[in-house]
């Protein structure tokens, strides 16, 4: 399942890279990237290549950075976007977990329209975790990312160590054990199912509820072509990535650079778009709604 999730999320990085070095770096449709200069359907988005902190501060919100230690020694970075209001109101804590090739910045890419800042505006205490192996959570008490043993983990460890650690941390800081809402996306849902199944009592004691976005629990209904590729070539891709040093569970800098170089030009972007639809499907009505409100490329 981990290989299938990785392959699914890998092509989604095509939709998160800057496709132009021109001033206009975001367009409404794929075809508009053929000419970004002077195109009324293209514009400049300052969030392209920005990190979470920059985007949050640019929008006028405070942000906190916390370090969380897991039971097995990993040091995770956990961000908090508290309300900018200087009152003592106890706010509902919400944890929003990104997917396997995502990052905490994904939740604020569309500024105040993003779920992260939208929830802050509506009175929630927003927490954005990063998981072990991601670009920001590479710490460990006695290992580095150069140690093979550092990477000896899977979905179970993310669920039973990382989730447990940052849920307990949020509960302690907010003093709201049992009142935390968890929102997961893609792999963020998968690990939540493992956590709630294996640590049922812990989940009942700490969480008020869980919300799943693009949930992944089973892969028996996955597109046959993608499933066949994952089964037959997944180990080869994993071995190649390992040989190239492309390890990670979030946005991997080397992968992003590769995609910007080879998928950052027109008409190659058309192929990238096709790969996204191959793994995710295509709903024209949803896509039109999203593109009209935001843009095709979000980062």
TrEMBL record:
This protein's UniProt keywords: Signal
InterPro entries: AB_hydrolase_fold, AB_hydrolase_lipase, Hydrolase_4
UniProt xrefs under SUPFAM superfamilies: alpha/beta-Hydrolases
The Serine aminopeptidase S33 domain, residue ranges: 115-246
A Pfam family matched in the record: Hydrolase_4
Keyword Signal: yes
Annotated signal peptide: 1-22
Protein name: Uncharacterized protein
Organism of this sequence: Acanthoscelides obtectus
Source species taxonomy: Eukaryota, Metazoa, Ecdysozoa, Arthropoda, Hexapoda
């Amino acid at each position: 399942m981990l290989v299938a999730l990785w392959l699914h999320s890998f092509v989604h990085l095509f939709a998160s890279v800057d496709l132009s070095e021109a001033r206009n770096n975001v367009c409404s449709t794929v075809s508009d990237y053929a000419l970004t200069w002077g195109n009324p359907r293209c514009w400049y988005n300052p969030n392209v290549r920005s990190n979470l902190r920059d985007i949050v501060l640019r929008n006028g919100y405070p942000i906190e950075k916390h370090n969380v230690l897991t039971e097995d020694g990993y040091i995770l970075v956990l961000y908090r976007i508290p309300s900018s209001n200087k009152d003592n109101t106890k706010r509902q804590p919400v944890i929003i977990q990104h997917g396997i090739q995502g990052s905490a910045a994904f939740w604020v890419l569309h500024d105040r329209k993003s779920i992260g800042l939208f929830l802050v505006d509506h009175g929630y205490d927003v927490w954005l975790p990063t998981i072990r192996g991601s670009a920001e959570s590479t710490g460990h008490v006695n290992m580095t990312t150069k140690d093979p043993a550092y990477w000896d983990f899977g979905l179970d460890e993310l669920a039973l160590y990382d989730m447990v650690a940052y849920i307990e941390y949020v509960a302690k800081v907010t003093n709201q054990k049992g009142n935390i809402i968890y929102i997961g996306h893609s792999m963020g849902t998968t690990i939540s199912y493992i956590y709630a199944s294996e640590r049922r009592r812990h989940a009942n004691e700490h969480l008020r509820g869980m919300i799943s976005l693009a949930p992944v629990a089973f892969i028996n209904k996955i597109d046959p072509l993608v499933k066949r590729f994952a089964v037959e070539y997944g180990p080869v891709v994993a071995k190649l990535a390992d040989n190239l040093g492309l390890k990670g569970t979030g946005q991997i800098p080397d992968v992003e650079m590769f995609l910007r170089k080879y998928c950052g030009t027109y008409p190659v972007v058309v192929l990238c778009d096709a790969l996204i639809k191959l793994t995710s499907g295509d709903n024209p009505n949803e896509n039109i709604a999203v593109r009209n409100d935001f843009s095709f490329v979000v980062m």
